[in-house]
Amino acid sequence: MSNNQFKRGELYSVINGMATTAVARRLQKNFRNAGLEITIEQWSVLYHLWKEDGLSQLELGNRTFRDKASTTRLIDNLEKQELVTRVASKDDRRINLVYLTDIAKPLQQITYELANKTMNESLQNISKEEIEVVKNVLQRVYDNLTSKDLI
Amino acid sequence: MSNNQFKRGELYSVINGMATTAVARRLQKNFRNAGLEITIEQWSVLYHLWKEDGLSQLELGNRTFRDKASTTRLIDNLEKQELVTRVASKDDRRINLVYLTDIAKPLQQITYELANKTMNESLQNISKEEIEVVKNVLQRVYDNLTSKDLI
DNA sequence: GACATATAGTTAGTTATGCAACTAATATAA
DNA sequence: TTATATTAGTTGCATAACTAACTATATGTC
Fold first, then answer.
1. Predicted confidence (pLDDT) per residue in B56-102, tens digit
2. Does at least one atom of strand C sit less than 7 Å from the CB of A24?
3. Does residue B3 fall inside a structural domain?
């Protein structure tokens, strides 16, 4: 028995990730209340494009922790809403570079404000130190599971 | 500016819940490698039935943080695989009580072992104290978002 | 240059999610 | 006791996830 092992009764809530799910749902709700029709998944893609426009689909998938199939559909939907466009790379025609449209650009400010508001709602009465521990542990959990492949 | 506020660059990984998602995916993979055909979502329902059999769909939804529509479909799929059966309550015929079948019962031990194994993989080099902080903070985040309704 | 391999992205199939509108059964209230 | 409201569950619609199989382009080797 590793001394890190969770007791059975505690397993589920960790695996389920219900807290982070609740944060995501709240942000979605805050988007909707503000009249924004984008999903948080779509926002996660826009978020990375606002930081660096013209990424490939694969790179977007890496940065948002999605496989390429999921990335394809997400960008399909973003394209339908005319928030991004795909442009084939001149250097390598296998690659689609994804660019923000003029419709998407002004959404950055309002969605960031709503994300900050959501964070404030989520993190009431939680100290900076605790937040640091959580971020650090979750990152290490992620690294534990992605640094080496299973069998 | 609340002093709990995340800096923008840190927002996404928290909302995305990528660490808990990675744990869930690893557990799913461990199920598959062991020849088990159940999803982690299905397992989350079985998990609560192993603790207390014969719960109503609504109660199962509450315990697994799902709305009633999602619960309905999840139980549809569990019923298709003959892992649970629905029995209308004698007292109130609106209520379906969900019971484990003889096929589901022996899955408890092996899936618990796989869940423990997954936890051990996830929590390598993370101390008990850190785990306590994370559990505590995530619970408080969840409470912050569910204790009161939005507007 | 030709053939095998690797890479980027798409598509098909299945499961799961949320919201909103619906049915059926029960509880409340006039 | 009949009309109204509430509750448990289902269904329709849209988005999103993963796996596996596929296409098209690029690369590497002989």
1. 999 999 999 899 999 999 999 999 999 999 999 999 999 999 999 99
2. no
3. no
Residue B151 forms part of a structural domain = no
Per the structure, the count of domains in chain B is 1
CATH of the domain at A113: 1.10.10.10
In this complex, the answer to whether residue A86 has its CB under 7 A from any atom of chain C, a nucleic strand, is yes
Tell me the nt nearest to A67, Cα to C1'.
Answer: D18
**Distance to chain A for B87, nearest Cα, Å:** 26
CA distance B4 to B6: 6
CB contact set of A137 (below 8 Å; sequence gap of 6+): B126, B130, B131, B133, B134
pLDDT digits (tens, 9 = 90+) for B25-59: 889 999 999 999 999 999 999 999 999 999 999 99
Cβ pair B44, A16 in contact under 8 A: yes
Does any CB of chain B come closer than 8 Å to the CB of residue A110?
Answer: no
